[in-house]
Amino acid sequence: MKYFLITISVLFFSCSESDDNDSVNQSSMINPPAWIQGHWESESQISFTFTENNIIYTLFGQTGLNYNQAIELTQQVGQTPIVNEEITDSQYNIKILLPPNPEVYYKFKKLSDTEFIWENNNNLILTKG
User: 46-51 and 91-97: which strand pairing?
Assistant: First the structure.
Protein backbone atom coordinates (compact mmCIF):
# COMPACT_ATOMS: atom_id res chain seq x y z
CA MET A 1 0.00 0.00 0.00
CA LYS A 2 2.80 2.41 0.89
CA TYR A 3 4.52 1.70 -2.48
CA PHE A 4 1.24 2.29 -4.28
CA LEU A 5 0.61 5.64 -2.61
CA ILE A 6 4.18 6.80 -3.21
CA THR A 7 4.07 5.78 -6.88
CA ILE A 8 0.72 7.43 -7.53
CA SER A 9 1.72 10.54 -5.57
CA VAL A 10 4.93 10.92 -7.57
CA LEU A 11 3.05 10.47 -10.83
CA PHE A 12 0.28 12.81 -9.70
CA PHE A 13 2.56 15.64 -8.61
CA SER A 14 5.07 15.30 -11.45
CA CYS A 15 2.57 15.47 -14.33
CA SER A 16 0.88 18.60 -15.50
CA GLU A 17 -2.88 18.85 -15.20
CA SER A 18 -4.76 18.18 -18.39
CA ASP A 19 -8.02 19.77 -19.47
CA ASP A 20 -8.86 16.62 -21.39
CA ASN A 21 -10.81 14.67 -18.76
CA ASP A 22 -13.29 13.17 -21.23
CA SER A 23 -12.25 9.54 -20.70
CA VAL A 24 -12.92 9.80 -16.97
CA ASN A 25 -15.87 12.18 -16.93
CA GLN A 26 -17.94 10.58 -19.71
CA SER A 27 -18.00 7.14 -18.13
CA SER A 28 -16.75 7.34 -14.58
CA MET A 29 -15.43 4.12 -13.18
CA ILE A 30 -16.08 5.27 -9.59
CA ASN A 31 -19.65 5.77 -8.37
CA PRO A 32 -19.89 6.12 -4.56
CA PRO A 33 -23.40 5.82 -3.12
CA ALA A 34 -25.24 8.98 -2.04
CA TRP A 35 -24.96 8.15 1.69
CA ILE A 36 -21.15 8.39 1.60
CA GLN A 37 -20.82 11.46 -0.61
CA GLY A 38 -19.25 14.45 1.12
CA HIS A 39 -16.12 15.16 3.15
CA TRP A 40 -15.18 12.79 5.99
CA GLU A 41 -12.39 13.12 8.57
CA SER A 42 -10.76 10.96 11.22
CA GLU A 43 -8.88 11.90 14.37
CA SER A 44 -5.72 10.42 12.80
CA GLN A 45 -5.62 13.14 10.09
CA ILE A 46 -6.93 10.88 7.35
CA SER A 47 -9.82 12.19 5.29
CA PHE A 48 -11.83 11.21 2.25
CA THR A 49 -13.94 13.29 -0.08
CA PHE A 50 -16.49 11.29 -2.04
CA THR A 51 -18.32 12.81 -4.98
CA GLU A 52 -20.80 11.13 -7.31
CA ASN A 53 -17.86 10.00 -9.49
CA ASN A 54 -14.63 10.27 -7.50
CA ILE A 55 -12.76 9.49 -4.30
CA ILE A 56 -10.07 11.81 -2.99
CA TYR A 57 -7.86 10.49 -0.20
CA THR A 58 -6.06 13.02 2.01
CA LEU A 59 -3.41 12.39 4.65
CA PHE A 60 -2.13 15.07 7.06
CA GLY A 61 -3.96 17.77 5.11
CA GLN A 62 -2.22 16.96 1.82
CA THR A 63 -4.10 15.34 -1.07
CA GLY A 64 -2.48 11.98 -1.44
CA LEU A 65 -4.63 10.51 -4.14
CA ASN A 66 -7.35 11.69 -6.47
CA TYR A 67 -8.60 8.43 -7.99
CA ASN A 68 -10.09 9.94 -11.15
CA GLN A 69 -6.77 11.60 -11.94
CA ALA A 70 -4.93 8.35 -11.16
CA ILE A 71 -7.29 6.44 -13.48
CA GLU A 72 -6.75 8.99 -16.25
CA LEU A 73 -2.98 8.80 -15.80
CA THR A 74 -3.11 5.01 -15.96
CA GLN A 75 -5.04 5.24 -19.23
CA GLN A 76 -2.61 7.80 -20.66
CA VAL A 77 0.32 5.42 -20.20
CA GLY A 78 -1.56 2.69 -22.06
CA GLN A 79 -2.70 0.62 -19.09
CA THR A 80 -6.24 -0.48 -18.29
CA PRO A 81 -7.57 0.45 -14.84
CA ILE A 82 -10.07 -1.90 -13.24
CA VAL A 83 -12.65 -0.80 -10.66
CA ASN A 84 -15.14 -3.10 -8.93
CA GLU A 85 -17.73 -1.72 -6.52
CA GLU A 86 -20.21 -3.36 -4.14
CA ILE A 87 -22.85 -0.93 -2.91
CA THR A 88 -25.66 -1.35 -0.38
CA ASP A 89 -27.61 1.00 1.88
CA SER A 90 -24.91 0.65 4.55
CA GLN A 91 -21.80 -0.76 2.83
CA TYR A 92 -19.46 0.54 0.14
CA ASN A 93 -16.65 -1.74 -0.99
CA ILE A 94 -14.36 -0.79 -3.84
CA LYS A 95 -11.39 -2.54 -5.44
CA ILE A 96 -9.16 -0.41 -7.65
CA LEU A 97 -6.37 -1.77 -9.83
CA LEU A 98 -4.12 0.79 -11.51
CA PRO A 99 -1.35 -1.21 -13.22
CA PRO A 100 1.48 -1.69 -12.52
CA ASN A 101 0.53 -0.99 -8.88
CA PRO A 102 -1.08 -3.62 -6.64
CA GLU A 103 -4.84 -3.66 -6.17
CA VAL A 104 -6.26 -1.39 -3.45
CA TYR A 105 -9.36 -2.49 -1.55
CA TYR A 106 -11.52 -0.24 0.62
CA LYS A 107 -14.39 -1.43 2.87
CA PHE A 108 -16.59 1.31 4.29
CA LYS A 109 -19.56 0.62 6.59
CA LYS A 110 -22.13 3.24 7.48
CA LEU A 111 -22.76 3.73 11.20
CA SER A 112 -25.05 6.76 10.93
CA ASP A 113 -25.65 9.75 8.68
CA THR A 114 -22.55 11.37 10.17
CA GLU A 115 -20.15 8.44 10.75
CA PHE A 116 -18.75 5.44 8.94
CA ILE A 117 -16.04 2.87 9.61
CA TRP A 118 -13.14 2.15 7.29
CA GLU A 119 -13.30 -1.57 8.08
CA ASN A 120 -10.02 -2.70 6.55
CA ASN A 121 -8.01 0.03 8.28
CA ASN A 122 -8.39 -1.04 11.92
CA ASN A 123 -12.04 0.03 11.94
CA LEU A 124 -11.07 3.69 11.70
CA ILE A 125 -14.10 5.91 12.31
CA LEU A 126 -14.59 8.89 10.00
CA THR A 127 -17.00 11.72 10.74
CA LYS A 128 -18.77 13.92 8.22
CA GLY A 129 -17.08 17.32 8.22
Answer: unpaired
Is the pLDDT score of 22 beyond 50? no
| 106, 120 Cβ separation under 8 angstroms | yes
Angle made by CA atoms 4, 9, 15, in degrees to the nearest 5: 130
First-residue to last-residue Cα distance in the chain: 26
**CA within 13 Å, CB half, 10:** 6
Distance, CA of 102 to CA of 74 (rounded, Å):
13
With residue 127 as reference, give the H or E element that holds it. Answer: strand 124-128
Closest to 108 in 3D by CA, of 25, 44, 42: 42
How is domain 2-15+29-128 classified at the architecture level of CATH? Beta Barrel (2.40)
**Can you say how many angstroms the Cα of residue 129 is from the centroid of all Cα atoms in its chain?**
17
Give CA–CA dist 47/128, Å, rounded: 10
Average pLDDT over residues 67-85: 96
The residues spanned by each domain of the chain are 2-15+29-128
**pTM for this structure?**
0.78
